[in-house]
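Example record

One chain of 340 residues, shown exactly as stored in the release files.
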Amino acid sequence: MIAAQQPVQRPADARLLVIDRHGAITHAPRSTLADFLEPGDLVVANDAGTLPASLHGVHLASGAPIEVRLAGRASFAHEDLRFAAIVFGAGDWRTRTEDRPLPPPFAHGDRLALGPLVASVHGTLGHPRLVALKFEGPADRVWAGIAQHGRPIQYAYLDRPLALWDVWTPIAALPVAFEPPSAGFALDWKILRTMRERGAEFATITLAAGISSTGDPALDARLPFDEPYRIPAATAAAILRTRTSGGRVVAVGTTVVRALEHSGGRSGDGVADQRIGPDTRLSIVDAILSGTHAPEESHYQMLRAFHGDDVLAQAEAALEASSYRTHEFGDSVLIFSRPH
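Predicted structure tokens for this chain:
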């Protein structure tokens, strides 16, 4: 696979690799996604908007330049200004994350000047790059400061700085994600209309999608971090209706799988703290629409809950042979769960 370097959400030539429940592989234009749905299916997407979660500033105790990447939060509460964050030393996205220097050593109570904002360190979280932060000041001013000073988190394979509209999906609503729920980039209003015409339903959940890479293997092994979510009553009702009638629940992205499996399809707020992998027996989700992922990536582990390693290896070989594009602006895979 090759990296998708340009932030184009729905390129005309985007492709879709489909794995059916028996492991058969099909290649198709991504615009034909609805052709693989059936009457009675339910497609569920994450409607989280993306925060400008990269904040540059200074570690006040040392005067050293830093970049803070907000990476986790315990709730959606407006007044909750506590975050887990990945912190780098000097530099920006143009340098690969694995090559970024460590930040200066942090102590409890250290203050960070981040543009118009100040945050204090409440502790390190088992790694020099991972810290607990709390912003100082009224919530409205803090959120306004993040909007004013922050930039979307991005990586060195991209060819230009991201604008905020580059990382908002067409259905984006509450801005709570730290990186975009990028499987939703595949959606547009034409596809949603075609889904309806085929007799499939569409619903949404909200999950604060976390970061995809920290640049450190030890930290990457801890991904994904805990993520708050919200399942609307209407979505829970649609899930129950679909499962009762024998339809399939199709999750748009790993974030949706995580939220639905953690919640059991019930409505309400929660925090997804589980790992989904080859030993997971899925109880709600029957298929996943996702980006293309390499076996060493954390997102790939979730795909192993849908099919065995033999089928996924064949799919990986097919993706490589056909030069599919990877990362958030790349091509897509649609995987239907194997029979149990």
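Notes: The chain has two domains: 2-50+161-336, 54-149.
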